[in-house]
Amino acid sequence: MIWGRRDSPVLPASMVGESGLLGAVRIAVDEAGVGRWDALNRLVEVLFEVDAAGDEVVARSALALVARVPRLVVRLDEHARSAPWYGHDREPALRQAATWFTGASSGPVATALASMHGDGRIRKRAVAAMVSRPCMEIMPFLVLRTADWARPVRDQARAGLAVLLADDPAVYLPSVLPMALRLQARLRAGFAVNQVQAAVLATREQVWRGLLGSGGRRQRRFVFDIALSQGWLRLPDYVTSAETDPDVGIRVRAAEAACREAVWARRLDVLRRLAGSRRPEVRVVALTGLVRVGRDSDVAVHLDDDAPLVRAVARDAARRLGIDARERYRTAVRATEPLLGAIAGLAESGSAADAPLLRPLLSHPLAKVRAQAVRGLRMLDAVVVGELVSLLRDPSPAVVREVTAALRPLAGAVPPVLPWELLADGRVELRRAGYRLLRGRGVGVELRAALVLALDPDPRLAGRGKADVTRLARGVERTTWHRGPRPQLSVTATQHTELVALAARATTVLGEDTSQKLAIWLARTRPDR
Length: 529
Known about the structure:
Blueprint: H1 13-16, H2 21-34, H3 37-53, H4 56-67, H5 70-79, H6 97-100, H7 108-114, H8 120-132, H9 139-145, H10 151-167, H11 169-182, H12 190-202, H13 205-212, H14 217-230, H15 235-244, H16 248-265, H17 268-275, H18 280-292, H19 296-300, H20 308-320, H21 325-333, H22 340-349, H23 355-358, H24 367-379, H25 385-389, H26 397-407, H27 417-423, H28 428-438, H29 443-454, H30 459-475, H31 493-505, H32 507-510, H33 512-524
Helix pairs in contact: 2-3, 2-4, 3-4, 3-7, 7-8, 8-10, 9-10, 9-11, 10-11, 10-12, 11-12, 13-14, 15-16, 16-17, 16-18, 17-18, 18-20, 21-22, 22-24, 24-26, 26-28, 27-28, 29-30, 29-31, 30-33, 31-33
């Protein structure tokens, strides 16, 4: 089978056999994406097995699985010149590429792996093979060599990439663009990015629209910026992108362009449509457009919007209309079913005198209303510890989080035993709340709480506790990079004994280094010394 730019299409993995070579490649790619040296080495070995099979369709399909993850291609390139820290006598499997690669007649897998070899002469020969017999699956490896540190390799790869993109951008752009953007911040990577930009500018509308509607966030932003600067998009395109694009950056840029054009053309229907978007960043741009065309009455109706910035724009419009926004919020909060935006708006524009309107909502049947009421009291600086302590065991995790945030500045007024009871509770959010309330109560309390948390069954809480114990233990040492004040551990003999017991229980969790530092610290600070 001839390896050329116009050969037969690659078959899906399901047609080749998921349990065969492609299945092994797929597993190896997934493991290499999150693994380290051994996982990358295993992927290379599996790819060599694919090349040895001699099936061109399987080889290109396997290469496509790797090439669709630009970050993995970069890691493989770095892997070719690395060795594991635990065994420097081991060589990367990629160095075997020299024996598998025979030149232009080699298959795509051997050529791609040879292009990452440590020997520049081998890389140069591999680049020549890529250019003479290109295929879209191998293009990311060619793009990588355009930033090669060896000038002969780099120049040959750049010349080949420029010719291929000029010859058929519709075929090669989808595979070149993600890799070029992945290398954008790297030294000598500007050439590939400039070539991609020139190719997008010269390509047909069908091609750049296909790139805009596919690929990752970085690719779509790149193409959208070009289309926006060239005026290729029209008002309906902007509106559609602002309403439906999954990327917030594109949504904002599209909303700005749509509203700017709508303001110039007095398209109130477009501004009102975007003002009703479910995306707050789109709504605020549309409301700003309505303000510019003098439609403050359309803006003021958003006083109780869920988004803070939207409420701020609406309050400014209400002020110009002579509407008392604070009184509107007070009326809305008194309603049987108060809107969350109205509660938040009252907290933003009111004062402590408005706190009595929020306190009845602490017992509201809806958890989101209770949480918003607690947040409002915190913003009004009207927190009463006795009212919120009972809410620390609220059934809603959102309410627990808000109550914890409100009580943290007043943790000294919380019953001393309560945070420890929460730290031992069966609910994860209550243990988190208890730990947060114990922060800032002295080194002894923080160390004890962190040791307890390090043994927590929840992995995230245990990780937080381990990190804090490590920070405290390392803080005792004076090193060239740490000259801050040492944590002072002042505890009673009973408390010290408890800390020693907790440290012994947490040894397997903390690791040898942290446990040793902690043991030395506790030994130095025994009350009987």
